[in-house]
Amino acid sequence: MTSALTDAAASRPASGPARPRILPQQPGHGEPLGSTSAEASATASAEARGHIGQLTGIRTVAAVWVLLFHFRHHLTAQVPFFWSMLPWVNVGYLGVDLFFLLSGYILTYTHIERMTPWSPQAAGAFLWLRLARIWPVLVVMLLAFGTYNAAWMIGSHEAAHDRSLDPARLLAHLTLVHAWGSTGLDWNGVDWSLSAEWLAYLGFAVTAGALARLRRRVTSRALVACASAAIMPVVLTGLALEDGTNLMLAADGLRPGMVPVRVLSEFTCGALVAILVLRRLPAARLPHVLRPVPVALAILVAIWLIGAFDPLRRPFLDRTWLVDGHPMLGSTETVLVVPLLALLIAGLASADRDPITRLLASRPMVWGGRVSFALYMCHLLCLDVLERVLPRLPEGRPRALALALGLGSSVLLAFLLYRYVEEPCRKAMRSMLPASMRQPRDAETVSAPPSVG
Q1: Exposed, middle or buried by CB within 10 Å (0-12, 13-18, 19+), for 324?
Q2: pTM here?
Q3: What is the residue extent of each domain of the chain?
Q4: What is the SS3 assignment for 190?
């Protein structure tokens, strides 16, 4: 973070302040909670902000970052010159951190005025809408992984799948508490981040009123200081970990306490950045150094420099993972770029004419952002199938084709999940709320987390 954010206000032409790129807003359903004119005005203001396309598009980047991270050893073996991307792909787990920051930002940006003044009804509606966004796909993928693991266990008698069929753990997954204190990854190995997000949602539902008061009463410099302080726990904790721990792993599974630290630190930082943007940046001319292109370049350069000149080489469990002589372990010190990811989100929301903003707001990127949650949730299943098929194939083109099929299947399955599970179930669960408690559809569009890792 930097105090330059607070000094960015400048005079605008008579035509008015620059505004983030806004895609056409879809009509809401029902009236906002409450009946006071002040609240109605706040809600109208929130609705006017609409759907920020570039913040949907950046989800494509985050989801693909994670996908490449999980497939990287196969891509390195089968795709010429893919090794040149490893400095960035090896830290693809940072896509999770980008999603946590983005989730805090978007939920605050779209909901803080609708949840002011705070009420149990508003908090309950918020949580139900969040559940409608993530739970249906979670359940379908748990069923898919359960069926898949049971079939393999019956056919091969592999004991490794026993934990992935544990009914007690299934209940923990269904109630979204499985990563709060767990030390293992089971069933769907990536849905730990949904459990983390649910913890953040619960916290937001309780503290939305306090965040609204911060917006009114705290100076912009104080908000920058608070956002910087909020992100420090994950940065300092990450610096203490070994390379290849993905900011969460211990010798026997998940590092105790790391999941709550990671999500709450980053979600809170994203929320505070949103308050700062709502207060200052829509009417401010961003300094060039804080615009998306310079910040994105700084992130890429920092990741490369840290990977190339890491002064503290500490391989996780003293293991060196090489594929064709290329290291597969990311330097844990790259956690230092997480604050820059928060700065990138702020810049994307505030600099509508930046080239990166325009790219992320394009139709293909927005489409990718919409299916990114489903892609995140299903790609490990496709990867597991691929890893069982590859050893049976000869080297060369057959394995390369199998890899391409695995990646393509991930995208296809993601689209099917989005089209026939995620969207229909979200609409059905949303319709269960009384009309007065439904929030405009647009408020939910960019805040669903493919929270990844």
Answers
A1: exposed
A2: 0.84
A3: 3-8+46-139+191-445
A4: coil
